[in-house]
Write a structure and sequence with these properties.
The complex is a heterodimer of chains A (about 575) and B (about 950). With about 575 residues, chain A is of the alpha/beta class. Helix content of chain A is about 45%, strand content about 15%. Chain A has a 5-stranded mixed sheet, sandwiched between helices. Chain A has a 4-stranded mixed sheet with strand order 4-3-5-6, covered by helices on one side. In chain A, strands 9-8-7-10 form a 4-stranded parallel sheet, sandwiched between helices. Chain B contains 31 helices and 39 strands. In chain B, β37 and β38 (about 910) form a beta hairpin. Classes of the chains: A alpha/beta (about 575), B alpha/beta (about 950).
């Protein structure tokens, strides 16, 4: 043997422990009672595991192993089944026996690229000292408030354009919740003609076939990033044997993306009506809406509006609508990972085939849509398929909601024609570059869509147009870099993000993002090794996260060689 | 996948398609994976997370292949072929991906080798992956907290084979994949040290691990064995096949082998409970009792101090003394003055020769073994009702059942690998109904858990039958064509309305109705039961009710439906088949049947009228007969009645009162301690023989190591005793005994020794050579008069001893996962002893609190017959008012308390119910030279 003698039975159960109780952690009766009280009459179904974990986390500020063991018993799950789920999501704080619970208040500082460029590092360095031991300060992956960079969340309350002073003021005031802001509520939406289209549909004034045809004519594609034609998706799922389910993705997590939140905050019922029309056209039994946990204000507002809708439905026979809460995991924006998460599991993408449309949520055919795709349905159907297609520039068709952030003067959600170039977008929609900043580079599609130099500013931004350059538009999250930024640093920020957010399931992504991150943190990059790594990640990762993770790095090598040689 | 259960999906026949594999046309089913087809076609694809028998998950990505027209590569372990598909496994693109995956994993592998077969290394070599170019991950600490398994996660590749082995295969649900990204980690429970987790040490994870990240503790598997011997497990009736890995006449470690009953699976006993054979307490010389060591029923013994009581003798002297004295007693006091106990742990051949010795050498039918203490009542009821004492279907049939009714059995403890099939069935959609006064582990996965009051089996089952009758759920056609006696049964159950029985059973009427309907109306319902049913004074009645339940609903005679009494010991089925019971010759031919007698007299070449025509005495009856003076001499082979008989003080007094006791065993057991002669015998891996499991599967156990010192194989010893009794036996090889057996036993008549050697296992009935054997029986008729089964009604008979003011609680005895029978083997097995070192009583936490005790305190348990002190373990599986105690602990021999009251039909004692008093305090149990975990404490720390 070439290694040390193995000592015997170190941290195992002692003889006395074995005399006391059967193997493993026992359920503490007090903890069980607390969990039972907290869950009340709620069902103990497996798919509610994450919801129940939230209840415990919200009530106690953390998840003690005593509570987890009690929850496991209550739900007839093995302890490890509860633990592996709880430990997957960033927003659960597990505290083991003898461990100390986190501080009562957590301040999350977004360290996404836009926020980093706007000073997040400085906040992360200074806030812990200023706020003291009573407050926990964490770096958080993109929280979807890039137009407000740098963004910070105090408890559940977002602080736009945060400064140390504004954060300290919120903490001091105990302002930790985010109330719904002005939005078009059910009454207002109805007063303005809302839900009339849905009524026409269900009353038979319109038939499903014509609605689907309109969608197809419009050329509307999935706006979560993958761009699958929406009408075709409806047709495919509709042809599957029922019961069929629907899953709506509002787990908007791609760094740089915030359009869904902005639209939801403004007009929730436009989305809900689109969703109900889709459900009607496809024949959906139950709809699950998965909302990222970071959007606390939206959740409260949306739940309230859903309650109103349920109490006063536009017509009888609406499908059941279930709102589910994410728990801090970018990967759950991937359609099959989201389905796993809705089922109460770790958000690990599934292998395909089978496709979600055939075998999706709970093994049923599932229509899965991004929020924005459904948001457009009402207007498209009302105005006709050609209306949407009549927009567009540079030979492209349709409208896009660009989330623009970074070094532009007026960041925000910009509804612009598909096919607009970055230069046009900056100049016509964003008031130009910030003073003192010169346009240097841009990310056309969030963290995974690649990085292009300012010299390539004339490419139409749309599905399919960026592929030749090793990039894609994805969710249309555009981050603009200036001469004060470096593409290498952006790539490092992105790869750190992917490493942090990889679910860990497959080798190329789990190990690949970690190895890539370590390699590019070096001042000099091993370009040959990075290329090999990039190939295996693209070719062999299970899902889009690992497949797209090398994009920023590859783009730096391809388009920013001057940075590599000068570093 | 959609809306059909997994069990159903597996039975679908998928279409065959033709596609291209590396440019060649091949065919495969669309239910197959590309990698499986490639394997068949001789095309090698690397793989790590893929392991046949486990679900494919496709996470390692080392098996990526190129499929023409697809954007990215595909995992060949998770993709099915489609017609015309073009698959390339060795293109530059595919190879590069395979190599890079291996390079990434290799970069994180530790320098230390934890296994001789690291699959990452093997594939990296095969694909010529050189020194990895990546920096390794941060160091990962080892977890050496478990006595059996070392956890070295620095070698972990997160392939989750261990997780699937633990969760999907064994369904012990201990291993999880926690955290995420590069922190993703294999955890036990909630990232606890393995030794402090709920791990039951089945070792399936170790067997599944490709890198040695989970490895046998103390480097047990790093040594290179010089031989591997295919054999079978020596413990329970499931009959798992295993491989002994042997070096220098020592078993290094054990692997699961692909047998019909286990398909490679093992439990903690089978995998880690083998080194008792190497224990220093092994008897290696014949022993004769010293003249100055009188026998007394009350004793405390220390096997380290054998010489206080015995002296060593030569085999000649010992055999002459042992056999000579038996002969003397027979000749002086008559044929019925001797009795013999054989063992359900021995081989079929040993059981056969032993009963033949008693019947022809002693001259009576006074031969029995521990089946009397296990399933005697089930066998009586089965023989009476359906004409056969064995199971109708194998355990594995649960995966084809729609409903499984499990009553009075705790298979996760007593038949662990059998339990895995039940859990697999549940995962696949089978509905499990668990009926038990104790909340066993399976209750968690059960569709319904019916926790009825101890002793109320007949009330519960009659109430279920009442529902089935009154709601018209009976199978009229089956009853009419295949049974007799239904009217009597129907009238009898009329008085058992669920509403009337609910308060008696402690189960609400609606639940009784629900489970009765579920059982009766399913396409296939299977009943499995254990000693919770059989070990009662109404054990036979309990089994009669189960049989009636099955018959009235027609739930028997097809795959996935029938009756399965889970047999306890590895060869209790075979020993009973071989005639090691006082009322039957081999193959259940009754001794009172003149024709049967004649057949055996002729087969054994005896003069007509030689064989005793009266049934002999049963185990407990023998003890009474000794006290009464009618039995004076005994030969006990591998049994330990001083520990296993009810009212053990009485049994010990009886054994001490014998004129002559010959004990043949591998250790100085409590029974051997009272012997006049002790003959050192062979442990299971030291001999070859056939063994019959609970499924009626005759399997081959093969010799792996030589017996120590002068210890001899049992078959040789039996023959030597026979010769001393005047029998001229000259069996050369064990196969000669088997050949004689099959000539006298029609049910195994078709099984040849050569076939057993070749196939390792054959199911009986197998009546002629070439007969494949019948796993499912009673398809067309029952082996009874007229081919019809018989209903036998039963009424409520209360337990013999009910709780009262003096003894207000109830004692239930049984076994523990880690310990076997009376503990003589397992408490000397290093790992098993380390996992369960001390005697414990399982008491409900609230009962403990009520007596002012804390968990782990010493309590004294007393019945009218005796008392013991042991540790009180708080365990919610025990109902309030009932205490469960395993009978394997010599320092707290619980059978001193149990009630020897017998079932009138089967003569099985009521181990599952007697009145006790539990009080806080007492003398902490004192351990001698084994038990208490000392086997591991004293073991060498490392092989280095």
């Amino acid at each position: 043997m070439n290694h040390a003698v193995i000592p015997i039975a170190v941290a195992g159960a002692s003889k006395q422990r074995k005399r006391q109780a059967p193997k493993g952690r026992r359920v503490d009766p007090a903890a069980l009672e607390e969990v039972q009280h907290l869950l009340g009459a709620e069902p103990r179904r497996r798919d509610l595991l994450i919801e129940h974990l939230h209840k415990i986390q919200d009530r106690f500020g953390h998840l003690s192993t005593a509570h987890l063991a009690a929850l496991a018993q209550e739900m007839r799950l093995a302890q490890t089944e509860v633990f592996e789920v709880a430990s997957f999501y960033h927003h659960f704080d597990i505290v083991k026996e003898g461990g100390s619970p986190p501080q009562a208040l957590t301040v999350r500082v977004c360290d996404g690229l836009s926020c980093e460029m706007a000073g997040a590092r400085d906040l992360l360095a200074r806030l812990p000292v200023l706020l003291g031991k009573e407050v926990r300060v964490l770096a958080a992956p993109c929280i979807g408030r890039c137009e407000q960079a740098p963004a910070v969340v105090v408890g559940q309350n977002p602080v736009p354009q945060a400064s140390c002073e504004s954060v300290i003021a919120r903490v001091a005031a105990g302002a930790t919740r985010h109330g719904p802001e002005g939005h078009i509520d059910l009454a207002a939406y109805r007063a303005a003609g809302g839900y009339a289209l849905l009524a026409q549909c269900t009353a038979g004034a319109r038939d499903a076939e014509s609605v689907i045809k309109t969608l197809e004519d419009s050329g509307l594609r999935g706006l979560g990033g993958a761009g699958f034609p929406a009408g075709r998706k409806w047709r495919i799922v509709r042809a599957e044997t029922g019961p069929r389910l629907m899953a709506v993705n509002i787990d908007e997590g791609e760094p740089g993306t915030f359009k869904d939140r902005v639209l939801l905050e403004r007009d929730p019922h436009r989305f809900l009506e689109g969703m109900l029309i889709a459900a009607w056209a496809v024949g959906i039994e139950t709809i699950y809406i998965y909302l990222r946990d970071e959007y606390h204000g939206c959740r409260e507002m949306l739940q309230a509006e859903l309650d109103k809708l349920k109490a006063d439905p536009p017509q009888p026979g609406l499908p059941e609508i279930v709102l589910r809460r994410g728990a801090g995991a970018y990967i759950c924006g991937e359609e099959s990972a989201m389905i796993e998460s809705i089922e109460g599991k770790r958000g690990m993408p599934r292998l395909r085939p089978p496709y979600v449309a055939q075998v999706g949520l709970f093994g049923r055919p599932t229509l899965e849509h991004n929020f924005e795709t459904l948001f457009w349905v009402r207007e498209l159907v009302e105005k006709g398929g050609t209306w949407f297609a009549s927009h567009g520039r540079n030979g492209r068709q349709g409208l896009r909601s660009f989330s623009v952030s970074g070094r532009v003067k007026q960041p925000g959600v910009k509804l612009a024609p598909a096919g607009i170039t970055i230069q046009q977008l900056i100049d016509e929609y964003c008031g130009g570059m910030q003073d003192g900043h010169a346009f240097y580079a841009y990310l056309p599609g969030g963290a995974s869509g690649g990085i292009l130099p300012a010299t390539m500013s004339d490419i139409p931004l749309d599905f399919d147009t960026l592929q030749p350059y090793g990039c894609f538009i994805g969710s249309a999250a555009v981050i603009v870099l200036s001469d004060r930024d470096r593409a290498m640093d952006a790539a490092r920020n992105m790869m750190r993000f992917f490493e942090h957010e990889s679910c860990g399931q497959c080798t190329p992504c789990r190990s690949g993002t970690a190895k890539a991150s370590a390699l590019i943190e070096q001042p000099r990059w091993d370009v040959e090794l990075l290329a090999d790594l990039s190939t295996v990640m693209r070719d062999a990762s299970i899902c889009g996260l690992g497949q797209a993770a090398p994009n920023p790095v590859d783009c730096v090598v391809k388009y920013f060689p001057h940075e590599l040689s000068t570093s | 996948m959609n809306a059909i259960t997994r069990n159903e999906a597996e039975r679908l026949e998928a279409p065959v398609v033709t596609f291209q594999l590396n440019g060649r046309d091949v065919t495969g089913r669309t239910s197959e994976t590309l990698i499986a087809i490639a394997d068949r076609e001789g095309v090698e694809i690397p793989r790590l997370c893929y392991k046949p028998g486990l679900d494919s998950v496709g996470n390692c990505r080392s098996c990526m292949v190129e499929i023409a027209g697809e954007r990215v590569l595909a995992p060949s372990c998770c993709r099915a072929p489609a017609a015309g598909m073009k698959v390339t496994t060795d293109s530059e693109r595919a190879r590069k991906s395979q190599q890079m995956v291996l390079e990434l994993l290799l970069a994180d592998m530790p320098q230390t080798a934890y296994t001789r077969h690291n699959e990452v290394d093997q594939w990296a070599q095969a694909l010529q992956v050189g020194k990895p170019r990546f920096a390794p991950r941060a160091p990962v600490a080892a977890d050496l907290s478990h006595p059996a398994i070392a956890v070295n996660l620095d070698a972990c590749i997160q392939c989750t084979r261990c997780l699937r082995a633990c969760r999907d295969e064994q369904v012990n649900d201990v291993i999880g994949l926690a955290f995420r990204g590069e922190q993703a980690k294999i955890v036990f429970d909630m990232d606890d040290p393995m030794g402090a987790s709920t791990c039951v040490a089945c070792g399936e994870c170790v067997q599944a691990c490709p890198t040695g990240a989970l490895m046998p503790a103390r480097e047990a598997a790093l040594a290179v064995p010089d031989k591997q011997v295919a054999s079978v497990c020596p413990y329970c009736g499931v009959g798992c096949q295993l491989t002994y890995n042997v070096k220098d006449n020592k078993i290094l470690y054990v692997d699961g082998r692909d047998g019909p009953a286990n398909q490679g699976r093992l439990c903690v006993k089978g995998r880690y409970g083998f080194d008792y054979a190497h224990h220093p307490h092994r008897l290696t010389k014949p022993l004769i009792r010293r003249a100055d060591a009188p026998k007394r029923g009350e004793f405390a013994m220390d096997p380290d101090r054998v010489m206080d009581v015995f002296r060593e003798a030569t085999w000649d002297e010992a055999l002459a003394f042992a056999g000579g004295r038996l002969r003397e007693i027979r000749d002086r006091h008559g044929k019925k003055s001797l009795a013999g106990f054989g063992s359900a742990k021995g081989s079929n051949e040993e059981a056969y020769l032993f009963q033949k010795l008693v019947r022809t050498g002693f001259g009576s039918n006074n031969v029995d073994h521990c089946t009397r203490l296990c399933h005697a009542s089930s066998v009586v009821a089965l023989l009476e009702g359906i004409g056969s004492g064995a199971v109708s279907n194998p355990v594995m049939d649960v995966t084809q059942a729609e409903v499984v009714l499990l009553i009075g059995a705790n298979p996760t403890v007593n038949h662990p690998v059998g339990a895995t099939w039940i859990k697999n069935a549940v995962k696949g959609g089978t509905k499990l109904i668990v009926c038990d006064p104790r909340r066993s582990d399976l209750a968690r996965v059960a569709h319904r858990f019916v926790q009825f009051k101890p002793d109320t089996d007949v009330a519960l089952l009659n109430a279920m039958m009442n529902v089935i009758v009154t709601e018209g759920l009976v199978d009229e056609a089956f009853i009419a064509s295949r049974t007799i006696g239904y009217d009597e049964l129907r009238k009898n159950v009329e008085g058992y309305a669920p509403e009337a029985m609910a308060p008696i059973c402690g189960v609400d009427a609606q639940t009784i109705r629900d489970v009765a309907r579920l059982f009766a109306t399913s396409k296939a319902s299977m009943i499995l039961w254990g000693m919770g049913v059989s070990q009662h004074v109404h054990g036979t009645d309990n089994a009669r009710c189960l049989i009636a339940l099955s018959l009235m609903t027609g739930q028997i005679g097809r795959p996935g439906t029938g009756l399965h009494p889970l047999r306890g010991q590895n060869n209790v089925q075979g020993a009973s088949d071989a005639g090691l019971i006082p009322m039957m010759y081999p193959d259940y031919q009754h001794v009172t049947n003149p024709a049967a007698r004649q057949r055996f007299e002729s087969a054994w070449q005896l003069p007509a009228g030689t064989l005793d025509d009266q049934p002999g005495l049963t185990v407990v009856e023998v003890m009474h007969a000794i006290k009464a003076g009618s039995i004076r001499g005994m030969y006990v082979m591998g049994e330990n009645p001083a520990m296993s008989d009810p009212d053990a003080n009485h049994a010990r007094d009886a054994l001490a009162a014998l004129d002559h006791l010959v004990v043949q065993d591998i250790f100085l057991t409590e029974t051997a301690y009272l012997a006049d002669v002790v003959l050192p015998a062979s442990a299971f891996p030291e001999k070859t023989g056939s063994f019959t499991n609970t499924d009626r599967l005759v399997q081959m156990g093969r010799q792996a190591i030589a017996p120590p010192g002068d210890a001899k194989q049992d078959l040789w010893i039996i023959q030597q005793i026979a010769q001393r009794l005047g029998l001229d036996w000259q069996y050369g090889h064990v196969s000669e005994v088997f050949d004689e057996m099959r000539r006298t036993m029609p049910s195994i008549g078709g099984i040849t020794w050569e076939r057993l050697e070749r196939e390792h296992a054959v199911t009986y009935p197998c009546t002629h050579e070439g007969d494949p054997g019948e796993p499912v029986v009673f398809i067309d008729d029952f082996p009874r008069e007229g081919g019809r089964a018989r209903f036998v009604p039963a009424d409520i008979i209360p337990a013999n001893e009910r709780p009262d003011a003096d003894y207000p609680m109830v004692l239930i005895t049984g076994r523990q996962l880690e310990h076997w029978h009376t503990g003589s083997m397992t408490r000397r097995a290093t790992v098993l002893d380390a996992i369960e070192p001390d005697p414990v009583a399982l008491v409900h936490p609230l009962d403990l609190a009520a007596m002012g005790a804390r968990p782990g305190d010493v309590v004294t348990i007393a019945s009218r017959r005796g008392e013991v002190a042991l540790y009180a373990r708080a365990d919610e599986s025990s109902p309030r008012g009932a205490v469960f105690v395993p009978f394997c602990y010599y320092e707290a021999a619980i059978n001193k308390l149990t009630n020897p009251a017998l079932d009138p039909f089967a003569k099985i004692p009521e181990f599952k119910y007697c009145a006790i008093r539990v009080s806080l305090g007492g003398q902490a149990p004192v351990q001698s030279s084994y038990g208490g975990g000392i086997a591991l404490e004293g073991a060498p720390a490392s092989g280095s």
